[in-house]
Design goal:
It is found in: Cell membrane. By secondary structure, the protein is mainly alpha-helical. 74% of the residues lie in helices and 1% in strands. The protein contains 15 helices and 2 strands. A two-stranded antiparallel sheet has the order 1-2.
C-alpha cells in the first residue's frame, strides 16, 4: 500500500524579514555611525575654519590682513616646532614639561658664543643643537633605561635647565645677534619669480603644498581601503581637501601680498613633511604608535621599547633646540625668562589636534592645526584688546573641551561595539 510522504519542516530557523521600518532604523544607525566617524576625522579642520571665520568677523577682517597673517607665522612658529616633537612624545604615552627651559638654555648657549665670544653665527646654532641633543639623551636615559616616569624626569629637567640658563647667562640678557642669525626668524624670500604687486614664488609654494596634501591624502585613503580599514566618505574627503586647499591658498595669497615667504615657514614646512613621513611611513614611527597603543603587545612583538623611548626624547631635545634658535632669532637675543610656559602651549596644541591622553593616537598635521587654532585665538583676542587673564581662561577651556571631546568619542566607540 503506497504511503504519501509528508513534507518535513526545515529545522533551520529563518530570519524574520526586515520591515521597512526596521530597514529605515538600520540605515539611520549606519548613517549616524558614519557621521560620527567623519566628525572625529575632520572635526579639527572644521573647528579651525570656524575659529578663523569667527575672529575675522569679530576683528572686522583685521585678523586676515596680509601683515597680521605674517605676524602669526613669525610669532608662533617655535610653538609649532615644539608641537611636532610633543605629539610624538604623547603618542608614545609620555609627556615633556621641560621644553620651555630647553628653549631658553639653547638660546642662551648660542648667545654666549655668538654675542659674547664673537664666534660665527652658525657655530652658535650648531652648539644649540648639540645642547638640545644632549638634553634629550639625558631625559631619554632616565626614562628609558632607569624607568623613571617622563613626568617626573622632565619636571626635574624644567627646573634644572632653567637654572642652567641663569648660570650660562649670568642672570642677564644678551643682544643683539648678527643679521644672518636674525634672518632665520625674520627673513623673507621675495621676488624670486617676480609678480605684479605680489610674490609669485609664495603662490607657487602654496599650490605645491595643496597638491602634495591632496595626493598624500588620496594615497592614504586607497591604502586604508585596501586593508579594509574605515575611511571617511569620498564626498567628505573631497570637501576636506577643497577646504584645506582654499585655506592654504588664501594664506599664501596674503603672504604674497605682504613681505613674501618667511624663511621660518620653509623650515617649519620641511619639519612637518619630514616628521609626517617618519610617523606614518617608517618602522620607528609605527613603533611609537605601538608603544603608546599597547605597551605589552609592543614588547611581545619584538619592539625595542627602551631604544625607541630613548630616541623619542633625543628627538624632542633636537626640536627644542630648533625652537630655541628660532625664538632667540625672533627676539634678537637671549633672556633668562625665555620659553616660559612654552611646554603648556605645545601640549595644548597636541591635544587640541587630536592626540589622546592615553597615548597611541595623534598626528603631526593634527598637532599643527591644533597649534594654529591656539595661535589664531591668541592673536585674535590680542587684536580685540582682551585682557591677558581672559585669554588664559579661554585657552584653558578650549583645551578642556578638546580632551573631553576625545573622551566622549572613545566612550561612544566603546558602546557601539
Amino acid at each position: 500500500m503506497a504511503t504519501t510522504a509528508t513534507p518535513q519542516a526545515d529545522p533551520t530557523p529563518k530570519e524574520p524579514e526586515a520591515t521597512p521600518a526596521a530597514a529605515l532604523t538600520t540605515g539611520t544607525s549606519d548613517l549616524r555611525q558614519l557621521l560620527l566617524r567623519n566628525l572625529r576625522q575632520s572635526g579639527i579642520y572644521i573647528a579651525f575654519v570656524a575659529i578663523v571665520a569667527l575672529f575675522a568677523i569679530l576683528t572686522e577682517g583685521l585678523s586676515l590682513s596680509p601683515g597680521n597673517i605674517t605676524n602669526i607665522v613669525l610669532q608662533y612658529s617655535y610653538i609649532l616646532v615644539l608641537a611636532i616633537g610633543m605629539v610624538l612624545v604623547i603618542i608614545a604615552g609620555h609627556i615633556d614639561l621641560s621644553v620651555g627651559s630647553v628653549v631658553a638654555l639653547t638660546g642662551a648657549v648660542s648667545a654666549v658664543l655668538v654675542i659674547q665670544r664673537d664666534y660665527p653665527w652658525w657655530v652658535g646654532m650648531l652648539a644649540a643643537i648639540a645642547v638640545g641633543l644632549a638634553v634629550g639623551a639625558w631625559h631619554g636615559f632616565w626614562v628609558a633605561y632607569v624607568g623613571i616616569p617622563a613626568f617626573i624626569v622632565t619636571l626635574a629637567g624644567m627646573l634644572l635647565f632653567r637654572g642652567l640658563t641663569l648660570q650660562v647667562l649670568g642672570n642677564i640678557s644678551l643682544s643683539p645677534f648678527p643679521s644672518e642669525y636674525s634672518k632665520v626668524a625674520s627673513g623673507f624670500l621675495n621676488g624670486l619669480l617676480g609678480g605684479n604687486g605680489y610674490d609669485a614664488f609664495t603662490l607657487l609654494i602654496g599650490a605645491v603644498a595643496v597638491a602634495g596634501y591632496a595626493v598624500s591624502g588620496f594615497r592614504t585613503r586607497v591604502a586604508r581601503i585596501k586593508y579594509q580599514q574605515p575611511v571617511e566618505s569620498f564626498p567628505l574627503f573631497v570637501g576636506r581637501v577643497l577646504v584645506v586647499g582654499a585655506v592654504v591658498m588664501y594664506f599664501a595669497w596674503q603672504l604674497a601680498h605682504a613681505r613674501g615667504l618667511p624663511i621660518v615657514l620653509i623650515i617649519l614646512a620641511v619639519l612637518i613633511i619630514a616628521y609626517g613621513v617618519i610617523s606614518k611611513r617608517t618602522v620607528f614611527g609605527r613603533q611609537i604608535y605601538a608603544i603608546g597603543g599597547n605597551l605589552a603587545a609592543a614588547q611581545l612583538s619584538g619592539v625595542k621599547v627602551k631604544v625607541v623611548n630613548f630616541w623619542i626624547f633625543v628627538n624632542m631635545g633636537f626640536l627644542s633646540a630648533i625652537a630655541g634658535i628660532i625664538y632667540s632669532s625672533r627676539s634678537n637675543g637671549a633672556q633668562p625668562a625665555a620659553g616660559n610656559m612654552f611646554e603648556l602651549d605645545a601640549i595644548a596644541a597636541a591635544f587640541i589636534g587630536g592626540a589622546a591622553v592615553t597615548g597611541g593616537v595623534g598626528t603631526v598635521v593634527g598637532a599643527m592645526v591644533g597649534g594654529l587654532i591656539m595661535a589664531v585665538m591668541s592673536n585674535g583676542m590680542q587684536l580685540m584688546g582682551v585682557e591677558q587673564q581672559i585669554q588664559s581662561i579661554v585657552k584653558g577651556l578650549v583645551l578642556l573641551l578638546a580632551v573631553a571631546f576625545d573622551v566622549y568619542n572613545k566612550r561612544r566607540a566603546g558602546t557601539s561595539r
